[in-house]
Design brief:
Keywords: Membrane, Transmembrane, Transmembrane helix. By secondary structure, the chain is mainly alpha-helical. 49% of the residues lie in helices and 0% in strands. The protein has two helices and no strands.
């Protein structure tokens, strides 16, 4: 008997969707555009904070 210790098997189908089609959960997923905008604003805020820290503590030494 072979003991199956690996829980995730990439060859095992997750639903009845053939491999070449988009899986059903991906089709039912809502639009991710708001999440993309949030990531962009987070990056802008992080760069602004890092620039502020740089100018306050390291600029002019």
């Amino acid at each position: 008997m072979e003991d199956k210790t690996n829980i995730y098997d990439p060859e095992e189908p997750r639903d009845d969707t053939p491999r070449k089609e988009v899986p059903r959960p991906a089709q039912e997923e809502v639009n991710d555009k708001p999440a993309g905008r949030t990531i962009a604003w987070t990056i802008v805020a992080a760069v602004a904070v890092l620039a502020l820290i740089y100018f306050l503590f390291f600029y002019g030494k």
